[in-house]
Design goal:
By secondary structure, this protein is an all-alpha fold. It contains five helices and no strands. It is elongated, with a radius of gyration of 17 Å.
Length: 103
């Protein structure tokens, strides 16, 4: 991949990640509703889902930093792979939305 193409791909994907933070705020606010039941405070699954949602901005920031460091070191393929880490949060959400609207 050429340097200009890789830089454009990094910039575009990171802009998408930054825009997705607006939706993340809503999802984080709604995820607190998972603790409505008194038993939920002791449920490990509820806590894991909440923490998974909570660390999304850290994953974006970490992948952005790592991606640009690797890009500067001319390791473009590794930069693109690191830049794809936030997709672990976005793809399940998109699949869920597609499933919800298709049903």
């Amino acid at each position: 991949m050429k340097r200009g193409t890789a830089a454009a791909a990094l910039i575009m994907s990171q802009l998408v990640y930054l825009v997705s933070l607006v939706a993340w705020l809503f999802v984080l606010g709604m995820s607190v509703m998972g603790f409505d039941s008194p038993k939920a405070a002791y449920d490990v699954t509820t806590w894991l889902i909440f923490i998974y949602i909570l660390i999304y901005p850290a994953a974006i920031l970490g992948s952005m930093i790592a991606g640009w460091i690797l890009f500067a070191r001319r390791r473009r393929r590794a930069a693109m792979l690191w830049n794809g880490i936030p997709l672990l949060w976005l793809l399940p959400l998109i699949a869920l939305l597609i499933y919800a609207f298709a049903s």
